[in-house]
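Agenda item 2: pyridoxal-5'-phosphate complex prediction
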Amino acid sequence: MGLADSVRVDEAYAHLLDAQDPLRRFRDEFYLPPDTLYLDGNSLGLLSRRAEATLLRVVDEWKRLGIGGWLDAARPWFTYAETLGEMMAPLVGARPGEVVVHASTTVNMHQLLASFYQPAGRRTKLLADELNFPSDQYAVDSQVRLAGLDPTAHLIRVPSRDGRTIDEDDVIARLDSSVAVVVLPSVLYRSGQLLDIPRLVQAAHSQGALIGFDCCHSVGVVPHRLSEWDVDFAFWCTYKYLNSGPGGVAALYVNQRHAGVAPRLAGWWGNNKATQFDMSPRFDPAPDAGRFQLGTVHMLSAAPLEGSLELFAEAGIEAVREKSLRLTEYLMQLLDTLLPEERSGYRIGTPREPARRGGHVAVEHPAAIQINAALKQRRVVPDFRYPNVIRLAPIPLYTSFHDVWRVVMHLKEIVETGEYRAFSSQRAAVA
Ligand SMILES: *Cc1c(COP(=O)(O)O)cnc(C)c1O
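Presented output:
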């Protein structure tokens, strides 16, 4: 890691780490909110100049070309979902044709579960976990019902032992010939735990089950080898670490081995591009993951992603991951050294091992609601998760080591002065 065992806590050291950072030039590519420490890029990534430029280009194409943009735009809109899928493939380790941008995470999850979860005979169960994001919880429950089954009998939610993490052994212990599909997050949204994907894939396949992952909290900060690991399907949003903008179009991955699996929900945008405009009443599915699309690509919600992905291609996802681990390591070391739990009440809820964590650090505190409010007043933007978690996400392309140092100084002052006690312990509507 290059960081000493006992970290230097002085400000000069933070500047030194920044001076040695090979990715530091990327910070200038972003619009950073003025006088603000933004540590919430795992909820909504910031706008880059490149993303703005590709969005404005598409707006201009619409202005100049009207409907002609479908074929005559710089990157034709007709195949834009596939083009962006190709640009994103290196971030997830996909082969050509396995990734396409489409709709939202939740829609993609429904489409993929509807298509891959086909209970038959004694193999009827959907295996998930109890810590996943609410939308994913609602989706698995409703998919079991859609299949005509009772979730109390056919949906397994693997419990957490500590309320923070899911033990892979507990997932593997529930796998047997009654499980049709396993669907799990790659990184847990609250604690930031990164699951051992290749191990879980191997275990699921050895029991004859399919396995898919929600990669919302890993794409853009953790490298993936989805095809090499033989993941069956995956889906993720692009407005978190990929900085595509609020409600930016999501993505889906389908392993090319499943070329024979038809979408259970068919729409004209999933048609073979060569015959789509034959306007035939018979669906002719695209030969690749594109067939899982439903309707017209959301151009204005996809365009910022193009510029953003250029930045990732320049930086390289391995370098992004390396810096992410250094940033989060530095953050945790500063907390350990300056704010030990017994004195401050802060506790780190994220696994310590680099191989077991994603891009953010979950800092727990009994007064997290009030500390979160105090941080906001000090123009720090964290991410609060009820009831006691403050998620801090230093983003490799735009957060500096000095930013991390300053955030820790705020956390220190807020508890040491008791300043947080002046804030309400009621939570806001969006938190
Ligand atoms: C962000 C996130 C979502 C959001 O889904 P949308 O359909 O984009 O609103 C879903 N699941 C997980 C795990 C997430 O992190």
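Discussion summary: The chain has a mean pLDDT of 96.
Owner for follow-up: CH.
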